[in-house]
Amino acid sequence: MTLLWIKALHVFFMIAWMAGIFYLPRLFVYHAETDSQAVKDQFKVMEKRLWFFVTPFALLTLIFGVALIYLYGMDWFRAAKWLHYKIMLALAFYVYHGYLFVLVKRFARDENKHSPRFYRFLNEAPVLALLAIVVLAIIKYQF
C-alpha cells in the first residue's frame, strides 16, 4: 500500500512540475514579443512566481522517485535498465529547470538575448523527452 501511495505522489508532483515548466517558456514567448515596459514588468512577476511555485514540485518528484527506488530495492534497480534511461531523461529536465531559472533572472534584468521563436522551441521540444519518460515508465522496454 505504501508503495502505491509513493508512486501516486511521484506521478502527481511530476505532472504539476511539468505543467509549470511547460508554461514558463510560453510566458517567455509573450515577454520577448512585447515592447511595453509595464507589460514586461508584469511578466517578470509572473515568471518569478511560477518558477518558485513549481520548484518544490521538482524536489518532491525527486524525493518520491528516490523513495520508489529504495522500496523496490537495489537488485530491482540494477535489473531495470529502462529506469536508467528514464533517470537520464529526468536529469535533463532538472538541467532544463535550472536553465529556466537563468532565463527568469535575465528577463528580470531586461537582458533577454533570444527571440520569441527560440522560446517557442524551448517550450515545445521537452515534450518529446516527457513522452520518452512516460513510455519507458509504462512499457518498461528492456534494452
Report on the architecture of this protein:
The chain contains six helices and no strands. It is an all-alpha fold. Helix 1 (2-33) runs antiparallel to helix 2 (37-72) and helix 1 packs antiparallel against helix 5 (116-124). The longest helix is centred in the middle third of the chain and has 36 residues, at 37-72.
Number of strands: 0
Mean pLDDT: 95
**Count of individual helical segments:** 6
Parts with pLDDT < 50 across at least 5 consecutive residues: none
Rg, Cα atoms, Å: 17 Å
Q: How much of the sequence is in beta strands? A: under 5%
Give the biggest beta sheet: none
- Described by the principal axes of the CA atoms, the overall outline is elongated
Outline:
With 143 residues, the chain is mostly helical.
Write the layout of secondary structure elements.
Elements (H helix, E strand, L loop, with lengths): L1 H32 L3 H36 L1 H6 L1 H28 L7 H9 L1 H14 L4
Helix pairs in contact: 1-2, 1-4, 1-5, 2-4, 4-6
Which terms would index this structure?
6 helices; mainly alpha; 0% strand
